[in-house]
Sequence to fold (101 residues):
Amino acid sequence: MALANILSEMPDLLERTLAEHTPDAQGFCRECRDATGVSATWPCVTRELAEQARSMSSAQPPAPGHRAGEGTVAGRRRARDLSAPARDLPVPASNGRHRSI
Fold:
């Protein structure tokens, strides 16, 4: 929460973080890769933090009927996990991690 608060006060860095941490065609983060090339599933932790910071910096009050978490990455992830049939979910690599080519 403290890091999101700091990020919310840096609009240039916040927008750059949101622009860079996007999903690739397989649903993995384009930016979050370790030294071996394994990438994190999207939304990554950094994207979720940036989404939280964006919601903190937004001065607009929520619209009537808005449910908490509805417009956030975490809220979309929960909705996707609960509503997606198993056949629509991506097939994980043999060890459950994605390796870039």
In short: The two ends are 34 Å apart (CA to CA).
